[in-house]
């Protein structure tokens, strides 16, 4: 009896051990197939990427693309992969076709490092437009230039009143283009040509230049220069300042001294805001003289002051020439100067009239030809 009970007990123990071994075997098989399926899935993904890239190449001409799906995972079906968008996309990363945006330019330095200081200015050598153009290959059509390596504060229009001064213009362009480029100026040059042989009107031409330049670009600074004046120092920077600027303070014809305290002739500069504040320049100064003094009065009467460079920097050479015909001294200039306060509100950019005849862009400048009318008849003395 005891032996029978012991045998049954051993039989139960053996069955339990056998069941445990079978359970262990099943668990090991499950784990084995799970690991195997994961490794097979990784291999399948790799093949899908390769096959996807191949289909992009070989199927490009035919318009067909072939995709491969991994169905080795448990419960994996084609429908489940169709529901998962990422499985349908080849693993090849798309190329970045966007070009990186350029870095913003730094502001131009207040004192550009390329300046040389005092210059040797002479007018004895023969000058041609072809030579000047070869000297300035970076100047674009219309006499425009922008520094490629920095961002200037001002956009400058340089206005030159003009008639029958072609030889002077060659020298002016020869010297000024290199100076302005060294100064890191964003500029355009505008020659305002008075057509006909009526009396010359410098200030009215300057008003025309202001108006026409703004049609060409959004300038905020205007330099007004006679065509026969060349700066002798490139540290005399051609841009605008907090106050209206008088550049030509020491001409050779005046012994390199300011002729009088209120002198504002030759070369001057005003910002757009300053120019509009004084209603531009007078239109009724026909002939030589007086308009620059009127402009000086407009500046002071509107609460501004004239700023000037150091006398050692503001030196200029003038190209010698005879006085132009039809630009005789204006006998009415002294009376007009005394009445600036009464006339500046109604005589200026707000009352400007002219007829635009032609705008032509040359490699080194923009030529604007205009008709500005005739002076009113002078009162008969009696």
Automatic annotation (TrEMBL):
EC number: 2.4.1.-
Transmembrane segments: 12-33
Catalytic activity: N-acetyl-D-glucosamine + UDP-alpha-D-galactose = beta-D-galactosyl-(1->4)-N-acetyl-D-glucosamine + UDP + H(+)
Residue intervals of the Galactosyltransferase C-terminal domain: 245-322
Localization terms from the record: Golgi apparatus membrane
Family matches, as InterPro entries: Galactosyl_T (IPR003859), Galactosyl_T_C (IPR027791), Galactosyl_T_N (IPR027995), Nucleotide-diphossugar_trans (IPR029044)
Keywords: Disulfide bond, Glycoprotein, Glycosyltransferase, Golgi apparatus, Manganese, Membrane, Metal-binding, Signal-anchor, Transferase, Transmembrane, Transmembrane helix
Topological relation to the membrane, as annotated: Single-pass type II membrane protein
UniProt KW Glycosyltransferase keyword: yes
Keyword check for Disulfide bond: yes
Gene3D superfamilies in alphabetical order: Spore Coat Polysaccharide Biosynthesis Protein SpsA, Chain A
GO term, biological process aspect, one: carbohydrate metabolic process
Any one GO molecular function term: metal ion binding
Annotated Galactosyltransferase N-terminal domain residues: 108-240
Pathway: Protein modification; protein glycosylation
GO CC annotation terms, alphabetical: Golgi cisterna membrane; Golgi membrane
Enzyme class: transferase
Cofactor: Mn(2+)
Function: Responsible for the synthesis of complex-type N-linked oligosaccharides in many glycoproteins as well as the carbohydrate moieties of glycolipids.
Family recorded in the similarity comment: Belongs to the glycosyltransferase 7 family.
PANTHER family reported for this sequence: BETA-1,4-GALACTOSYLTRANSFERASE (PTHR19300), BETA-1,4-GALACTOSYLTRANSFERASE 2 (PTHR19300:SF32)
Name of the protein in question: Beta-1,4-galactosyltransferase
Source species of the chain: Pundamilia nyererei
Lineage of origin: Eukaryota, Metazoa, Chordata, Craniata, Vertebrata
